[in-house]
Amino acid sequence: MENLILDGRLVAQSVKDSLVDRVKDLSEKGIIPCLATILVGNDPSSATYVKMKGNACEKIGIQSQRIHLPEETTTEELLETIQKLNEDDSVHGILLQHPVPAHIDERKAFESIAIQKDVDGVTSFGYGQTAFGFGKYPSCTPAAIMKILEYYKLPIEGKHAVVVGRSPILGKPVSALLLNENATVTTCHSKTTNLSEIVKLADIVVAAVGKPKFIQGDWIKKGAVVLDAGYNEGNIGDIDYEACCVNASAITPVPGGVGPVTISMLLKHTVDAAEEKAAL
Predict the structure, then answer these.
(1) CA–CA separation, 37 vs 156, rounded Å?
(2) Domain architecture of the chain: domains with CATH
(3) Residue 73: how many CB atoms within 10 A of its CB?
(4) Burial of 21: CB neighbours in 10 Å, binned 0-12, 13-18, 19+
(5) Which residues are designated catalytic?
(6) 232 phi and psi, to 5 degrees?
(7) Which of these, 10, 78, 14, 11, lies nearest to 40 by C-alpha position?
(8) Which of 82, 157, 241, 268 is the most exposed place for a label (fewest CB within 10 A)?
């Protein structure tokens, strides 16, 4: 069957285009939206992601404040850095790049980010607000998945969505967001039995498991919408793309699917936060 390729680059561009005038309006009031990114250590992939996010900010007039801390930084030192950013009125969003070195208490660091600056949706407070349906800044990858469905006018209400993965910044929040849009949601994970049979029931499949080509083509029922939130070494997603294309009515590629939209949602949340601050 012919399927619709869900082009994340188009969606991301539409989000960024919608921000240009909003950033201009803020700048006329003397406010430059600012995203502070914190990188701890020297992981090359993390450094690349931080650079990409910074460049994306600067292209639409958002200030990017990049903070690079050494590998030996302690949890307490990281918390001090975050607290300074919490207190800095010129900073509207804070992003702590994951993962941090193993000796740091990452969850404690995430929880120290002020809720009004949690534009990456990593705090338990922010997750709780998302689950209750009034979160301002849901985790960016789940927000990207919802934006793709919205952009392509793919119906959610009444559909059975199967989410494969239960991480606190991807699987769990995207399950909550889909539920809030009146989908019936099944959240699967490593302990799920008969996983393939459950996926075969889905009208919407979200792959968020972190394993290359994990979702097989014969797991996808005819006409299902497939969203691949995975990104593994070699530009490979969590689904077997070619095999899943056979039955899917719409599908995201990797790369060029969910990833670009994730970054655009981070920019949107930063502008949202700057507007919230300006309204106080």
Answers:
(1) 33
(2) 30-116 (3.40.50.10860), 140-259 (3.40.50.720)
(3) 19
(4) exposed
(5) 53, 97, 120
(6) -115, 170
(7) 78
(8) 157
